[in-house]
Amino acid sequence: MATEIDPALLQILACPEDKGSVLYVAGECIYNPRLHKAYPIRDGIPVMLMNEARQVSDVEHERLMGVAVDPRV
After folding, report:
1. Structure pTM?
2. The predicted structure's pLDDT at residue 3
3. What are the phi and psi torsion angles at 69 (to 5°)?
4. Higher-confidence residue: 65 or 4?
5. pLDDT tens across 29-52, in order?
């Protein structure tokens, strides 16, 4: 079972690289669709470090956009 992240935390998260808003993919990652970068979630804690991000392919981008949630909405 995926650990839930505090909704208040999700609302204030921003990408460390471009400082823009990010999307939440439950149980998987925090995603920046502008840069196609996914930040891991470890033990329920988003790891928002540039050197921890992974580059996402166009195919995975489409998948993530289908399941991601904008925490600010």
Report:
1. 0.91
2. 64
3. -125, 135
4. 65
5. 999 999 999 999 999 899 999 999
Neighbouring residues of 33: CB distance < 8 A, sequence distance ≥ 6? 23, 61, 64, 65, 68
Query: For residues 7 and 29, what is the distance between their CA atoms, to the nearest angstrom?
Result: 14
- How far, in Å, CA of 32 to CA of 22, rounded? 5
Residue type, 38: A
Question: DSSP assignment, residue 51?
Answer: G
Residue 50 is classified by DSSP as G
> In whole angstroms, what is the distance from residue 2 CA to residue 73 CA?
21
13 contacts 53 by C-beta, under 8 angstroms: no
